[in-house]
Design a protein that fits this description.
By secondary structure, the protein is an alpha/beta fold. It folds into two domains: 1-322, P-loop containing nucleotide triphosphate hydrolases (Rossmann fold), CATH 3.40.50; 325-403, Immunoglobulin-like (Sandwich). It has twelve helices and 15 strands.
Amino acid sequence: MRCVLFTGKGGVGTTTVTAATATLAAQRGNRTLVLSADPAQGLAAVLDHPLSTAPVEIESGLFAQQVDTQRAFEDRWPTMQAPLRRLWEATGADPIEAGELTVPPGAGEVLTLLHLFDQIRSGDYDVIVVDAGPIAQLLRLLTLPETLAWYLRRIVPADGRLARLLRGGSRRLGRSDWPDVTAEPLAGAAVQLQSIMDEVREILSDPSRSSVRLVLTPETVVVSRTQAAVGALALHGFGVDAVVANRVHTDAGGDAWRAGWAAVHRDQLSAVDLSFAPIPVLRAAYRAGEPVGLEELAAFAAGAYSALDPAAVLGGGGRAGIGPLRVERTGDGFSILIDLPFVERSEIALARLGADELMVSVGSQRRMLTLPSALRRCDVSGAVLRDDRLVVSFVPDPSLWART
């Protein structure tokens, strides 16, 4: 099973490219689900078919679905409130019913990931194609599992600190029965959620199972924003297997206006090819009208993908060869290697958080890296950005190594 997530700067045609890719994948024999997590809900209009919160079969082998986070929140609320029900009973508070709720800030991404996980785990599809919305939205979605795990480790540590905290609070309030009805259920729910998020991240960061594809138009600002997205995704361990250049003018037609735009786009895309290599840059030609409906979407996708399988891994080595955190032994210690294409040295900041973690920042993006056991007994001795790769050097702390 493959999962392909599309994103791009607003207005570049991401939803159209997503729908076209799914349509072509289905017509080439893949049982395909196209899933929209974009609140703008443009997928139904592009497909020219009404959608539901459940998968709808549009044609043989092609299913489509619009994620409704409010509906998903209400559907999951009975399970989510279970750890709190006994607390409400103990305090005399009225239980909150699903119909009274709105989705809390940040919960939309959790619900979208849970829904995507359910569809992946179902095994009903060969490929799931996701319209993930603008770049910032996809970054929030993909980084959520690791961010959530970081917070859960502190809120619900394995040493039972939460239970002790609640026990102390309940005693101060004169309610000795609270620990039994709050700590264990809450801790259990948190551990279960963290386990699911860890599995989701494992799937989405595995290039053999998941890909991110970026959509751009041949414009300087859009290209620059797309390059920045590659670097941000790389920081968090996600590679890009293809870029789709949309609305590309060709020489067809012969008039001077079209020829002028074709020349501009040809020069721009030559630079794009060079900068993104070896990531393949596919071309989708400019059309007088937006492709709407399955027939037009299939023709649009066939022009972009040609003989390529839209469900396959299209690229991702070299500059975008983003793998898991790599640690290498050096002559005087260790090095951590992090691929960071399209990132300038001035954008990078590092901070050691205690013995266990290293914080790496690229512009406004930040990632907390949990250090392997050996590196926790080392000091950071330096860092260098070389050939789109950040190398952080560590040397053993003699006092800590002598002790073990």
